[in-house]
């Protein structure tokens, strides 16, 4: 039966292995595991449930192997280390420091801009790993050949960041304790300035930066607590209507559950969060009856139900009128039906009197009685018409060739008495 165990090595390097046996080894027990083309020595860091929990959540666990519950480490832990093997591993610490110093000398000889921070020998001395930091990309191919000839073994150069460097070298922070990354933090995540803003910390980089020169890792894993705690408080800068009137939220103390308020006149007061909530709730209850007394708007319950997504139908509009079609008005309502005299021809422009007709009669009437005459045989007196616009419609009898103007007879050269007249003169 195979057991999952986590083994720690020099520089807080950890990896997972499978242990074949009935019972897994105890914590901090030195074990010999499979290495790169050989064997390596480490100490047990986690077993059983703790190892399975870490395997699913750390970067060097299931995430490194592609994730999933079926992911299992390929390497195995071989045996528990003997006292002689542990003594050989202790001697490697002095050899690691010697290899780092020699590597620094070779880096300076090649003129490379890089900093060798740590060196680690494999337990069987078949591989030497050098960890370095650099701001830019470094071409170290010639350096690797030189180091391989110097140490007579396989050389591996790994470029790491400043956070990983602080994790490998470890140290004591400003809090007086070991670095979080070296002590217990399972994964190094990036930290930006917005995390410090959410916690209302000083934005001075020297006060919120760690030994590595970057923002402290503790800001990241404490950030979630601050976000959840501030959800219970009103936002800073918001104006609240309290028993003392309008007050502005100045600050929130999430550790003591207190809110600092400032009134319009500048008076400051500190109120517990529970008392502030109770005060706001009592004010809302007082205002609720007045709100209920106001008439409610008619609801749309009487309206027919519509399906979801269906558009509301517009009210039916009046039928459209075709403006291009001709409009026919009744004869009785037409104002043009009463106009039967050409004002331009029958009215004098200067005096306004009717011009005499060709036969000596006035007003354009025929001398002979027509169907419209009175019993005495005289034409009825017609009222004076106002001067209209020029170019109006002619009378019913005007415009005929040789006809009497305004007598209502067709203009065919025949007088009103029906006798044939003389033909019109021709030029």
UniProtKB/TrEMBL annotation:
It comes from the Bacteria. Pfam families: PSP1. Residues 282-427 are annotated as: Disordered. Residues 397-411 have a biased composition (Gly residues). Residues 339-353 have a biased composition (Acidic residues). Residues 372-381 have a biased composition (Low complexity). GO terms for cellular component: cytoplasm. Residues 382-396 have a biased composition (Basic residues). Residues 284-315 have a biased composition (Basic and acidic residues). Residues 75-160 form the PSP1 C-terminal domain. PANTHER family: PROTEIN PSP1. This is PSP1 domain protein.
